[in-house]
Amino acid sequence: MATAAGAKGLMYFDSLTALWHMDGHGFYVWLAYALTFLPVAVMVWLPVRRQREHWRWIAAEQRRADSVQPGVTDK
Q1: Whole-prediction pTM value?
Q2: Residue 33 dihedral angles phi and psi, to the nearest 5°
Q3: How far apart (Å, rounded) are the C-alpha atoms in residues 46 and 52?
Q4: Domain membership of residue 48 as a residue range
Q5: Which SS3 state, helix, strand or coil, does residue 72 take?
Q6: Between 46 and 70, where is the model more confident?
Q7: Smallest Cα–Cα separation from 33: which of 45, 41, 24, 23?
Q8: Which of 18, 50, 51, 72 has the highest CB neighbour number within 10 Å of its CB?
Q9: Cα dihedral angle (34, 40, 42, 45), rounded to 10 degrees?
């Protein structure tokens, strides 16, 4: 399975299929990668989404404030 470093460089697996299967451990390895990547992606995505919503709210609030004519009050 493992090959020595040759003129082409170091390649631990002989093919992409061998990389995918990893001697029968591939499912667990790729599952571990997925279970690590997904929460990290969500931890990045949620604050970005919340910040975008906040900036939209600020822009809408600014538009509302700009649309109010000076000297006119709501009663």
Answers
A1: 0.56
A2: -60, -45
A3: 10
A4: 30-67
A5: coil
A6: 46
A7: 41
A8: 18
A9: -130
